[in-house]
Amino acid sequence: MFPYRGYAGKCLYVDLTSGKIETREYDKALAENYLGGNGFGTRLLWENVGPEVDALAPENLLIFSTGPLCGTIVPNPGRMEVIGKSPLTGIYGDANTGGFLGPEFKFAGWDAVVITGQSPRPVYLAIADNQVELRDASHLWGLTTSQTENAIRQAWGDPRVKTATIGPAGENLVRFAGIQITPQRSAARCGLGAVMGSKRLKAIAVRGHGPIRVADPHRLHKVAIALHKRLRANPIFPAVHAHGTPGIVSLMDALGRFPTQNFRMGSFSYVDRINADTLRARAFVRDLACFGCPVACDKLYCVPDGPYAETALRSVEYETVNALGACIWNANLDALLAANRLCDELGLDTISAGRVISFAMELWDEEILNLDDTGGLALYWGDMDTVLPLLRMIAYREGFGNLLAEGVRRAAQTIGRGAERYAMHVKGMEIAAQDGRAQKSMGLAHVTSTRGADHLKAFPVIDETGYPDEGRRRYGEQYLPDIVQPLATKHKAFLVKDGEDFGAVVDSVGMCKSGGTFVLAEIYWPDIAAALEAATGMEMPVEQLQRIGERIYNLQRCYNALHGITRADDKLPRRFSEEASPSGNAKGQTIDIEPMLEEYYQLRGWDAETGWPTAKKLRELGLEGAIERLQR
Amino acid sequence: MITIHVRYHNILQRGAGTACETVELPDGASLAEALRHLADQHGAPLREMLLGSDGNIASYLVIFRNGQLIGQQQHQLPLANDDELMLFLAISGG
Question: Interface pTM (ipTM) of the complex?
Answer without folding.
Answer: 0.97
